[in-house]
Input
Amino acid sequence: MPSPNSRHPSRIVPVLAALTALLLGGCDGPDATAAAPASSPATAAPSPTELPPADAVKIALRRLSTTTYSYSVKGDYWDGQKYTAFGSHDPKARKNSRGYVISGGKNARMGKMLVIGDESYENRIGTNRWTRADLTRLAPSNHYRNADPKDPSGLTRFAAAIHSTHRLDARTYEGSALLEITPSALTYLPLGAPLYRFKQGSQWVAYTLTTNAGGDVTSIRTLIEIGQHQPVIATTTFSNLGRPVQVTRPARATELRRSLYDK
Output
């Protein structure tokens, strides 16, 4: 004769399971596990106008210095001369191109320069000859060192030198940066295609930076005053951010003479 506890096992098991689930589900004791709270919605990144001015400018310059772009420069040179330049930059590939014109005066000239890695290639307009130089072998004050291979656009050094920033409107900022000078060495100005050199001293640079609605840099205007001379002003305009650029080595180039590396 079967015992009472062995009768109808198929009915007892579901009832016990349901009862256990009901008890555990309603348990509020100290060992109970609370349900995980619903996840919070993702927080949108602040717009440029919501950031402090200095942060907005730093972020914009950092983004510009890490993406491809095209640029053009219009500004002053010495003794009433004018300087214009244009080109493109691919910071990740370490490639930079520049075409430039210095107009007016006895030192008027035009040319092209490419910076690829630690090498520069220069061509004076009117000739088909390119000259290659190893920029790492040239002293900063050497006049054949016409680019900083680590920062050919000057933007990284400029961003590090910014001293003050304030917002003029939603897309315009102005402030000052310190131009620390190594005698006769290439500085970071004009931005995009640096060319200015000074014999001594340090200079304060006044700048005005404009952005588009997305916070990308569209132009930077710089002004420096040299002694009793007129202010030296240059404006660099940036475009085609993020678009592919092509900078290729010349098919033929002559090596810079060994004696010129020591100047």
